Amino acid sequence: MRLAFMGSPDFAVPALRALVDVGHQVVMVYAQPPRPAGRGQKETPCPVHRAALDLGLPVRTPARVRKDEAEHAAFAALDLDAAVVAAYGLILPQAMLDAPRHGCLNIHASLLPRWRGAAPIHSAILAGDTESGVTIMKMEAGLDTGPMYLRDTVPIGPRMTTPELHDALAPMGARLMLRVLAEWPQAMPQPEDGVTYAAKLTKADARLDWSQPADVLDRRIRALNPWPGTVATLAGEPLRILAAEPADGAGAPGLVLADGPIVACGQGALRLTRLQRAGRAAMPAADFLRGSPMPVGSILG
Fold first, then answer.
1. Which fold does the domain 203-291 belong to in CATH?
2. Who's near 196: CB < 8 A, 6+ residues apart?
3. What are φ and ψ of residue 271, in 5° steps?
4. Dihedral of the alpha carbons of 279, 281, 285, 289, in degrees to the nearest 10
5. How many CB atoms are located within 10 Å of the residue 57 CB?
6. Confidence class for position 170, pLDDT limits 50, 70, 90
7. pLDDT per position as a tens digit, 109-163
């Protein structure tokens, strides 16, 4: 089929490569514009952009498309059978949704209608869901409201992190999209009940609130690393909490109860297992404590 591909992060790369591998004609790739990255803040293409260049595919990187009629016309001129969209990051206007003969098909990393929106993988872990999955849907003007072609599930283990769930869902999305383009199953409306929304994450979400229960904070640490991360303060300085696990203990929220370190929460306690000070390397808690002691009785903010 004659396709455009629209995506930006690592999640979308397996789908792009799969489409090319099976012989679909990807005539244009759309990706987010290059952005400053690294210590030198050098303009860096996103993962999909880099993959497209590696595959020898043309790339467009408009900063916005909703009201850009020139972009709408350029998209229509591609004469597409369909557009495949995977975490593109820009909202497509109706003119672009309607341009391909079979419309725009989205790879969404949740079991719709649960976790419509920007951060479905993180949200599933934050909420303590026991399963997640991928839904292939036909895009329409509403936020992830379109009819569904196919979906599949994956269990969320009790210690699963966002990167681990991401790595399970990305190839699943590629496989499901290939099936849809080969079989064109009938699209079914989404159920009206069970709708939830996955809000876009910001740096403000990184702050840990020790008054919350230990199981909630445990999920938060697993869900929000590597970005935006989870941060506490120790003696007024920021401390990144990269990994932790529930532990026995009780005390005032944020109080270091025992070596490990074990920190009291609103209910229960957490053993912090991987830590990082600002400007320093991440390291296991035992190594961290040798250089930065955290005595019993210390308070984490």
1. Methionyl-tRNA Fmet Formyltransferase; Chain A, domain 2 (3.10.25)
2. 113, 114, 115, 116, 123, 127
3. -95, 120
4. -60
5. 17
6. very high
7. 999 999 999 999 999 999 999 999 999 999 999 999 999 999 999 999 999 999 9
- 194 DSSP assignment: S
pTM equals 0.95
Q: Identify the burial level of 288 via C-beta atoms within 10 angstroms of its C-beta, where 0-12 means exposed, 13-18 middle and 19 or more buried.
A: buried
CA 253 vs CA 208, 219, 239, 264: distances in Å: 11, 17, 16, 5
Torsion angle of alpha carbons 178, 118, 31, 102, nearest 10°? 40
Read off the pLDDT of each residue in 187-195 and give the average, rounded to a whole number.
Answer: 96
Structure tokens at 117: 């929106």
Homologous superfamily in CATH for domain 2-197: Formyl transferase, N-terminal domain (3.40.50.170)
Q: Are 247 and 259 in contact (CB under 8 A)?
A: no
Res 42 pLDDT > 90: no
